[in-house]
From TrEMBL:
This is GRF-type domain-containing protein. Residues 18-59 form the GRF-type domain. Coiled coil: none annotated. The keyword Signal does not apply.
């Protein structure tokens, strides 16, 4: 029986190139369907992107993806509330 490791080196995470020949950037998804999965994507934004996207990790169980997504939403909400609180103190 073999085992596999999900630990990856920085070299592994930077080894992909997009269709423009640029090194693709590694991101972590926070969507409901793919929360926690890492993927490579063209580093150019919007209409300048070549559309390159390549998943690095296998799909996680749905309850894990949902938990990661919910924590991201919670964190974003907390950050938004912190900014509103800070702005009201300053003004």
């Amino acid at each position: 029986m073999s085992t596999s490791s999900s630990v990856s080196s920085p070299q592994q995470l930077q080894s992909h190139t997009c269709k423009w020949g640029l090194s693709a950037k590694c991101f972590t998804a926070t969507t409901i369907e793919n929360g926690g999965r890492r993927f490579y994507k063209c580093r150019r934004l919007g209409s300048n992107s070549c559309g390159y996207l390549n998943w690095f990790d296998e799909k996680l169980p749905s309850h894990v993806s949902m938990m990661i997504h919910n924590k991201k939403v919670e964190l974003d909400s907390s950050r938004k509330n912190d900014v509103v609180w800070f702005v009201s103190l300053v003004t």
